[in-house]
Amino acid sequence: MKLMTSRMWAYIARRFMFNALLVLTVICGIVFAVECIENLRRASNADKAADIVFVLSFLRLPWLVEQILPFAMMIAAMMTFLTLGRSHELTVARSTGMSVWQFTAPVLLLSLVIGLFSTLVLNPLAAGLLAHHGEVYNDAFRGGTGAEENRWIRQGGGADGGSSVLYARGS
Hints:
By secondary structure, the protein is mainly alpha-helical. It is 76% helix and 7% strand. It has a two-stranded antiparallel sheet. β1 (150-155) and β2 (164-169) form a beta hairpin.
């Protein structure tokens, strides 16, 4: 009985990981394409080279993966149990005496491990790359960090109909 349960755990875990990688790859591909299109739009307005588009998109991708990951795991778990149910593998597992908790445990444990990986490894990486993305974006599209630039702001139309001009050092 123990051998059958461990084989079933490995089988379900393998199916879940395949589905998780598939879903994450597809969603990340779509998000990366949309991000590239948005950066291409900005680059065409600012007459920038196309390579900056891909650099900015790659720098932002880990942060987007971190945002997408919970939904990808949920969709992958649904796909896993749906395919196991359609092929009657869950019915056979239940008929052998396996409880629902026994065949959901591999998915729960793998989700926990992936969540810990996301928190401990992906989060610091994504935060660093997102900060670097901001620097590269400011250099490419704003002509610098903005700290050395002075700003003049006109505020118009008060109660008396006048306007005022404000001066700011950096932003």
